[in-house]
Design goal:
Layout: H1 2-14, E1 24-26, H2 27-34, H3 38-46, E2 52-54, E3 60-63, H4 64-73, E4 92-94, E5 99-101, E6 104-105, H5 106-112, H6 115-124, H7 141-150, H8 160-173, H9 183-200, H10 215-223, H11 232-242, H12 250-260, H13 265-276, H14 284-294, H15 301-310, H16 328-340, H17 345-359, H18 368-377, H19 384-405
Antiparallel strand pairs: 1-3, 2-3, 4-5, 5-6
Length: 422
């Protein structure tokens, strides 16, 4: 805990950097000078056009020299073929190496909060006063029964993420008020949906009476093997908070498009789950699980990773489209795993993989690497990382959906036509 706290505090101190205060201006001033909205400033930051730092009091500040230069040149033009889409949102802001929920450091929240608390924060914009004030997320028993029965014909080897897609559809059919998009109703739907997704999954390994446990503990005892170290339960709490949202990731964009045409919350989550299965998104942890299964000992790492690279395959868990210089979420989660199960023999394999990636010039690890490692250490079934990702990200999908529900128009993307004209 101390290490994570120091990491957060160090980040807050280091973002101020050097230079006189007069060389930096607040976001409002910068936006006025450029004639753009504040949200556009942060888009410029994510594209590497502007530098953002934090003042000691937590305010975002921008280099006045960069602002003046950008104002002189005019707004940057988007490169041909760019797929970037800008949507105003107050849910999550991406920084240089991490993200913030409603203005709060997500890594800090992951250290001290439960998924239920962060869900309420992202859905309502209000942070609960204390953990006891957050009513437990409980599924509707009849709906869970329908969702379990819907899986009765599935082969045992079906991935958990595919089960979740079926579960969400079954839960929707059993909810007579799913089309009510009032914010308060959507929050209640979210409570039942998340807990229902967990309750309807089949047990793997150790079976316990889990209904009275917190959501992360219920999910852990659903998926973990009988030999899993109980200290990993809290790591799953950390993971679920950390993965609750990540701005306009591919699955969130799909969820927002669905919500913009007034799809119900279940359909929104179904859209997000469909995109999550992609190997470049939530499915990346499945690739990490596969490598960890293949590498039995640390000294096999170079050969296995080398063979994959020679075949032209991706090495899952390394590199990130936003965090080019390192993903602080991955660093924090790896620290949690090292502290939870110090000396675990499989940790040595993971450390060897990280070192081998560095020697081969691969980008730094992203959060999918320790997520895949976590499921491996806990003895969870194949594809558990995808399922954890999907359940956790349901919080963010619904938060973004509620923003879209308030807007009078739907999202309508346009294509740059490149085909024949006649």
């Amino acid at each position: 805990m101390t290490i994570i706290r120091d990491l957060c505090q160090c980040r807050r101190k280091s973002t101020w950097g050097s230079g006189a205060v007069s060389n930096w201006i607040e976001a409002e001033q910068a936006a006025q000078r450029l004639g753009v909205k504040a949200a556009t400033l942060y888009t410029y930051v994510s594209r590497g056009i502007l530098t953002r730092r934090k003042a000691p009091d937590g305010r975002s500040i921008f280099s006045s020299a960069e602002i003046e230069e950008l104002a002189r040149r005019g707004r940057p033009r988007r490169q041909a073929g760019s797929t970037e889409l800008v949507i105003e949102s107050a849910v999550t802001m991406l920084g240089e190496d991490r993200h913030n929920y409603r203005g709060q450091d997500a890594i800090y929240l992951a250290e001290y909060k439960h998924p239920e608390e962060v869900a309420i924060l992202l859905w309502t914009g209000v942070e609960p006063d204390d953990r006891q004030s957050v009513r437990a997320f409980a599924p509707v028993s009849d709906a869970v029964k329908v969702a379990r029965e819907a899986q009765s014909g599935l082969p045992p080897a079906v991935l958990l993420l595919e089960r979740l897609q079926l579960i969400v559809t079954a839960l929707a059919v059993a909810d007579p008020v799913r089309l009510n998009l009032d914010p308060a109703v959507v929050v209640e739907t979210g409570r039942g949906l998340m807990s229902g997704m967990i309750a309807a999954l089949p047990h793997h390994g150790r079976v316990k009476t889990i209904d009275s446990l917190a959501m992360h503990a219920q999910l852990f005892w659903k998926l973990a093997s009988a030999k899993a170290d109980e200290r990993l339960t809290d790591v799953l709490r950390f993971i679920m908070v950390l993965l609750a949202d990540h701005e306009l990731a591919a699955s969130t964009l799909a969820a927002r498009v669905a919500a913009s045409v007034r799809a119900d919350p279940y359909a929104v989550v179904a859209a997000g789950l469909g995109v999550t299965s992609g190997a470049l998104h939530g499915g990346a942890s499945l690739g990490v699980e596969s490598m960890l299964t293949e590498i039995k000992k640390p000294d096999e790492t170079a050969y296995v990773m080398g063979e994959r690279l020679r075949r032209g395959e991706r090495i899952s868990g390394f590199g990130h489209a936003v965090y080019r210089n390192g993903d602080a979420r991955a660093v924090a989660l790896m620290q949690k795993l090292r502290m939870a199960v110090p000396g675990h023999r499989r940790l040595a394999v993971a450390e060897a993989m990280i070192e081998e990636a560095h020697l081969r010039g691969l980008p730094p690890m992203n959060v999918d690497f320790p997520l895949g490692l976590f499921t491996h250490l806990a003895g969870m079934p194949r594809g558990a990382g995808e399922a954890i990702f999907g359940i956790s990200r349901t919080v963010g999908w619904l938060a973004h959906a509620m923003e879209e529900y308030k807007k009078p128009t739907q999202l309508r993307l346009r294509a740059a036509y490149t085909g024949p004209t006649g």
